[in-house]
Amino acid sequence: MTVAKEFEKSNQKYVDQFAKGDLALPPSRKVAVVICMDARIDPAKALGLEEGDAHVIRNAGGRATDALRSVIISQRLLGTREIVVIHHTDCGMLTFTDESLRKQLVSEADENVDHFAFLPFNDLEKSVVDDVKFFKKNSLVLDVPVSGYVYDVKTGAINKVI
Ligand SMILES: [Zn+2]
């Protein structure tokens, strides 16, 4: 059985108790969270979010440049007025370089992806600061509060960096 099939089963249970069909499209707490896709992080549980509260924009590493398209839409079309960036300990982005992944893709897929930035990092706190600064400096992003945290996968705690 595929995982997708399992999802169909699980979703039926969710549907049976679902009572939030009347939520507004714009997030009620007017916040966009940019956070890594890491499977160990459940942003809703970790941050106290309910359906309708926030835009949670996930990608590998929780990188700002990758999230920019979504942040622009979130702010300009759906009214969010705060950004929270969350990277985390033991992130997969700490384990490779652009060069190593490019080499791997040449050998496995016979594709040259030298133009492609995978945005790995080797300094966790610096990557948070860099991404907060990216949003603060980008002229397409509104002048709103932007904060940055590191989520600890061992304790579940978010620790403020900037
Ligand atoms: Zn990660």
Automatic annotation (TrEMBL):
Pfam families, sorted: Pro_CA
Lineage: superkingdom: Eukaryota
The record's free-text note on cofactor binding: Binds 1 zinc ion per subunit.
Record EC number: 4.2.1.1
Catalytic activity: hydrogencarbonate + H(+) = CO2 + H2O
Enzyme class: lyase
Listed GO MF terms: carbonate dehydratase activity; zinc ion binding
Binding locations of Zn(2+): C36, D38, H88, C91
Keyword annotations: Lyase, Metal-binding, Zinc
Cofactor(s) listed: Zn(2+)
Family statement: Belongs to the beta-class carbonic anhydrase family.
Function: Reversible hydration of carbon dioxide.
Name under which the protein is recorded: Carbonic anhydrase
Organism name: Candida tenuis (strain ATCC 10573 / BCRC 21748 / CBS 615 / JCM 9827 / NBRC 10315 / NRRL Y-1498 / VKM Y-70) (Yeast)
